Amino acid sequence: MAQNIARHLRSMASSDPHRRAVVCPEGRDAGGRVRYAHLTFGQLEDASDAVARGLNRIGIGPDTRVALLVRPSLDFFILTFALAKTGAVPIVVDPGIGAQRVGRCLAEAEPEAFAGIPLAHVARITLGWSRKSIKTLITVGRRFAWGGHTLAELYDRSSEPFAIVDPEPDRCAGIFFTSGSTGPPKGVIYTQDIFAAQIEFLRDRFQVAGNEIDLPTFPPFALFDPALGMTAIIPDMDASNPARADPDRLIEAIRDHGVTQIFGSPALVDLLGRHVAERGITLPTVQRVLSAGAPVRPDVLERIVGVLHPEARFYTPYGATEALPVTAIEGREILSETRFETARGGGVCVGEPIRQVSVKIIRITDEPIARWSDDWIVPPGEVGEIVVHGPIVTQAYHGRPEANAAAKIPAGDGRMMHRMGDLGRFDAQGRLWFYGRKAHRVQTRAGVLFPVACEGIVNEHPRVFRSAVVGVGPVGAQEPVLLVEPEKAAAGDARDLADDLLELCRTHEQLASIQRVLLHPGFPVDRRHNAKIDRPALAEWVEQKAR
Prior knowledge:
This protein is of the alpha/beta class. The radius of gyration is 24 Å and the shape is globular. It has 17 helices and 27 strands. α10 (247-257) crosses α11 (266-279) and α12 runs antiparallel to α13.
């Protein structure tokens, strides 16, 4: 039997019941100060037990698939841990991907129950989400005419602890949908063993202490905090749009609670870093910053590291919904060493593999691979596709046989290798260097360009905020085009910047095939992290300009 993740909460409630587990902002008082509501570990344990009993009463138990569309809140934590205790399968879809895509995800997952805020229920009814499969409704907040149960009605405060369901190791414990930044979102099947391994690896690799205070700006990551024994401070922001968070409110939360850890996308870290650097603000309580979702530029690292305590650490874990974490690197290693190779076109270093995670580099192909063989592995230093295996690597997508065939490689001994869909190489020290998505490589008549490697050269220009190399035209005969989003505060003529970059391309061997440079007012990015560049959309923009 696998140990249910909810047992970590029960352990904390037993050993430290009065310490705060979750803190949420609840408006402001007459003096403008934030009012906070919180649950201690003991309160979260008791409340999730009470709701778990109510869930059982209405027929939700082991293997029941439950669509979960609830904003980060105390109720979100209570309901999620209650679902875990019953052995139900929460289906987590990022509402930021858009209502139509949410509907397609739910149609694929076929939830038997729907737990959501009133707005989510309105969308469910209006758009007909999973009308045939959903039998049970739960409203977190005020229920209107759609019927079903409210979360408040589910509370059953018996004195006996709820009997937590410990499922078989390979049983589905959750379905988490990918962001869909390079295709339709896919439902990733998580087991309790994978959750347990992630908790162990996060604690081990990043030296997480149980008495820390976290500001998790990505809601699913916040669920790890109670299991790690950390206090989660829910930020006052729209989690679906981190690049537009109010940095003053983030700083307020950090100062109010003595936050020791921040988890955020590169876009949010950039926003926060610029804000505090411009105003001379320091964040002395923060011991650790974790940023994932896209590569973090060296200038972003410099700004944020400069306002932290000298002993603080900045980590950039590499991974995906299907496998996280795979590798990690600390910011000072980037700033003192690897950034210079990035500036020469060597890709972005994402560090050494996490303990017990196996990482291989194989020949690039867009075709499925029916069976694993070491013959696929490329020589050391050569760029290829990143393939991983280990306790944190998921084994399958829900209801997607074609996606499983494309991304999974049976190893013949019960193992399943996962193709990350990313390109990279290993250096002589065993560190992994990221070269971008396989789907984004530019295939010209003269050869292949790896966008992230090329962009590392261009991004060194002081007037460049970010850049993207995209391919236009048929595969194998694509024209490489360099697009640049300038720094908003940069002075100078736009034409001069384009001419400078075109000259850079002419004088750099890796960029020599690029003969067109276009300036863009603001790159389209993914909805989850606001950091992954939507390169297909940029390629379409280039084609439209040419018409």
